[in-house]
Specification:
The protein has about 400 residues and is of the alpha/beta class. The chain has three domains: about 5-75, Winged helix-like DNA-binding domain superfamily/Winged helix DNA-binding domain (Arc Repressor Mutant, subunit A, Orthogonal Bundle), CATH 1.10.10.10; about 80-190 and about 370-385, 2-Layer Sandwich (Nucleotidyltransferase, domain 5), CATH 3.30.420; about 195-365, ATPase, nucleotide binding domain (Nucleotidyltransferase, domain 5), CATH 3.30.420.40. The chain is built from twelve helices and 15 strands. The strands form four sheets. It has a five-stranded mixed sheet, sandwiched between helices. Helix 1 (about 5-25) packs across helix 2 (about 30-35), helix 2 packs across helix 3 and helix 8 runs antiparallel to helix 10 (about 295-320). The longest helix has 25 residues, at about 295-320.
Length: about 400
């Protein structure tokens, strides 16, 4: 066999052995040989190499059937790290995780609302540098960066096409800009899609094959999971439900239509509606929760309006995709909204399938908002460890 072919076979065997150790957490060399159908000498050689490379570590001893207890091996979750960025703006959240996507370090900053494109990029770089320093990890052990970006993106080109809240932000090759800065692969994705990925891990929903994940933020967005895979669309912009018409005679939207869902269900919409009802300003939509708990009628009316229109939107998309598992998330308690949404859904949903639709509140904490980006990096780059 030629040298190149031998090398390819070794690389393939190395990956098979590593994946076996990774998926089984703690295994003996005998277990690995049995499960991979490789010879014991081949397994022994590869495990020794990966132990020397710090990819695999000893984790104790198994039960002996006679003689010495066999050594257990598991994959080293600290062999490399990933960075995730949730670019909501003005809030920007970042996280660094190990290979198990456990949060090692977390950062949240509020950028000036009048930031333009150039200032935004400078602030991103500074926050990234500070996070790496705070984490204590060596930059060389970073596998890459995953960025969740609102607005319109082109994930194949690593471009942010349009981010309306930032002056001058059009057709920005943000993935390439950050990649040149950190010297590591950078992947971009719709922000809600990455949040859904993190939610599935946080709420142990990885086995849920079909799911709609709706996030209430400055706008409102949705991620669509079908047959266990994330539906991204041609450029990565599927699930943009903010401009779905839910009231044909409703408010006029800047998109040119009327009655768009985002006009009634986004954080900005809730703040506007409360101001219209009371003449008072609130700093953030989450301020409505304690007001509602104290019986504030205006706050309760805001949640009723938001929930009613959200329920209409859920009916539309649940019927469109034939998906019954719906998770709704925000940075504040959405239980008031979900009660009203469920009622709106119940009175509109077809009787034959009404009971199948489940709306639940998301469990992802703010400290986990950046972990979707980490998961994206790990999905793309985890096995690249075996090449180094």
């Amino acid at each position: 066999m030629k040298g190149n072919n031998l090398s390819d076979v070794k690389k393939a065997n190395r990956q098979v052995v590593y994946e076996c150790i990774w998926s089984h957490k703690a295994v003996t060399m005998t277990d690995i040989a049995y499960m991979t159908h490789l010879s014991r000498p081949t397994v022994t050689s590869l495990v020794q190499e990966m132990t020397a490379d710090n990819l695999v570590v000893k984790s104790g001893y198994g039960t002996s059937n006679g003689g010495r207890n066999p050594v257990l091996y598991h994959a080293n979750a600290g062999a490399a790290y990933a960075m995730g960025i949730d670019l909501e703006f003005p809030k920007v959240r970042m996280a660094i995780s190990n290979l198990e996507c456990e949060n090692i370090c977390f950062s949240v900053r509020v950028y000036p609302r009048d930031s333009d494109k150039d200032q935004m990029i400078r602030l991103l770089k500074q926050q990234m540098d500070d996070l790496i320093q705070d984490s204590g990890i060596d930059r060389s052990r970073l596998l890459g960066v995953g960025m969740g970006i609102p607005g319109v993106i082109d994930y194949k080109q690593n471009h942010s096409v349009l981010f309306e809240r930032i002056e001058g932000w059009e057709n920005v090759p943000i993935g390439d800009i950050i990649q040149r800065y950190v010297g590591k692969p950078v992947y971009i994705c719709n922000d809600v899609n990455l949040l859904s990925w993190a939610e599935r891990k946080a709420a142990h929903l990885e086995d849920v094959q079909n799911m709609l994940y709706i996030v209430i933020r400055s706008g409102i967005g949705m991620a669509i999971w079908t047959d266990g895979s994330l539906m991204q669309g041609e450029m990565g912009n599927s699930g943009r439900i903010g401009h779905m018409t839910v009231d044909k005679n409703g408010l006029e939207c800047k998109c040119g239509s009327r009655g768009c869902l985002g006009l009634y269900t986004s954080e900005k919409a809730m703040m506007r509606i409360y101001s219209e009802l009371t003449g008072k300003e609130i700093k953030q939509a989450g301020d409505l929760v304690p007001l509602a708990e104290s019986g504030d009628k205006a706050a309760l009316q805001v949640f009723e309006t938001c929930g009613r229109y959200l329920g209409i939107g859920i009916v539309n998309v649940a019927n469109l995709f034939d998906i019954s598992e719906v998770v709704v998330s925000a940075s504040f308690d959405v239980s008031y909204i979900l009660r009203n949404a469920q009622y709106a859904l119940d009175v509109r949903k077809m009787n034959t399938i009404r009971r199948e639709v489940k709306i639940r509140e998301g469990l992802l904490a703010e400290s986990g908002f950046g972990l979707g980006g980490c998961l994206l990096v790990l999905d793309k780059e985890h096995m690249s460890l075996l090449e180094g």
